Amino acid sequence: DLAKEIREFRSPTDGETRMFYEIVVAPGYTEKGLEVLKGKSKTLRILEAKRSGKNMLSLRQVSGGWLAQESDDLTPEDITFTTGSERAPTDSELSDAKFAWLCVKHVKSNAIVIAKDNCMLGMGSGQPNRVDSLRIAFRKAGEAAKGAALASDAFFPFAWKDAVEEACENGIGTIAQPGGSMRDKDAVDCCNKYGVSLLFTGVRHFRH
Prior knowledge:
Elements: H1 2-10, E1 23-26, H2 31-38, E2 45-48, E3 57-62, E4 65-70, E5 82-83, H3 91-104, E6 112-116, E7 119-124, H4 130-141, E8 149-152, H5 163-169, E9 174-177, H6 184-194, E10 197-200
Parallel strand pairs: 1-2, 8-9, 9-10
Antiparallel strand pairs: 3-4, 5-10, 6-7, 6-8
């Protein structure tokens, strides 16, 4: 079914805007799935990537040696949120927050992802502070960011007149972040003021 949907996105028959995909990656494919994906397309690259085991080490080369650390192998089933705000997220906001949290782990720190309806609307990455990343993400998302979920790969060191308040003022509906800052309460108070749902993950994705 997924293969059929992807094929229809690439070559719609109902006049809808065509969605262009260059690569599809999955743990495996059925013969029927491959047949549907290949279809008439000669440009779609179909790759198979087996799932790796959990708790494997991630290696990075540093000057004079290697850095070994636990892999960030988060799956959708692993995500648990703690609601820190007065307002709990709606079901759709919770779904958007989970998707954004999965996406942000693949983005270079400082990382911000804005998502809605299982679609990444904007991201900001590789900036020296979270505010710059946030503004880049909003610039990409535009008006679509209204009511969307925002995920930050690490905690917000400040809230008022900083990234959290700016996100709230721009219409974000839900914010997901690890927590652990000395000023977490400021983030909670700020979200409560604007009626935004704030979710704590308890783990961070921070990567350079």
